[in-house]
Amino acid sequence: MRLTFAATMSDSYDGIQTAAERMIKYQRQVSTGIRVAQPSDDPSAAATAISEKAAHASYEQYVQAGDSAESRLSVADTLLSDIIDKLSAARTSILATQGSETTDAQRENGAQELASLRDAVLEDLTTSFRGTYVFGGAAGTVRPYSKDNAGVVQPYAGSTREVAVDVDRNRPVTVVFNGDAIVQGNDATDLFTAFEDAIVAARSGDAEAAHTASHALQRALDRASQTQSTVGTSLRAIEDHTLRLQEAGRSSTARVASLEEANMAEAISGLQQAETAYNAALGAAARTTRRSLFDFLPM
After folding, report:
1. Digit-coded pLDDT (tens) for 136-151
2. How many CA atoms lie within 13 A of 28 on its CB side?
3. pLDDT tens per residue across span 30-48
4. Dihedral of CA 213/217/218/222: which sign?
5. Is the pTM of this model over 0.85?
6. Which of 3, 88, 148, 251 has the fewest Cβ atoms within 10 angstroms?
7. How far are the Cα atoms of 106, 227, 229 from residue 161, in angstroms, in the given order?
8. Residues 139 and 158: beta-carbon distance below 8 Å
């Protein structure tokens, strides 16, 4: 049975179209360097790349959270260091106001120094960072401590619930702290009451009261040190997790590149083969259009 001219031409055009599509595919790979530009190019590779990109996005999100947490914790660490220094200085000042040879003027100077140290600690505990009080707990915009008109520091107004952020999967770090845990914790005497007691003892020369106030300040110093230790542990954890996440992100990017990017040597070779096939298809179609007398004979 002889093929009709129309059927032959249809096959030729199909061959040209297939060859052209293959040539365009490799031209795009060579010009863009991308092998998988859409899911239909390689459904399996496209699906894996989508999964890898989602993982990479989560890595970046954790790294950004870690950077933000590190900034806030660095501020907290600096404030806690200052609080510890001030409390240590306060205990030294209390000691300097005692003794039978201490004059009233020396006691008054000591009392004023203690008041100055108290105010410095109050300032540290009411420091805000990016609009949130570092030691205000979950009530981050509420000033945790303030003085009344008589200059007396009022009870804690912040939240006892602390705020944590995830810097990696299942790795939260506390970034906003409960100031009351430092100022009083489970102690019967809070830090600011201890300062007031120390100031009164300094002026009166009451050695026993001064001793009691000094010990209360030492306990507050211990609580601040414990909080700073927690901050240091969190900072080290952020550094470790950030390094791991960055490495995971680089590996994920490399895997996506291996899935989506074209192998240029293979792409160029494929383009050359596709061009040859395309030209061959065009030649075959051209020969087909040269009709003979047999094409006009009845079937």
Report:
1. 999 889 999 999 999 8
2. 14
3. 667 777 777 777 788 888 8
4. positive
5. no
6. 148
7. 43, 15, 19
8. yes
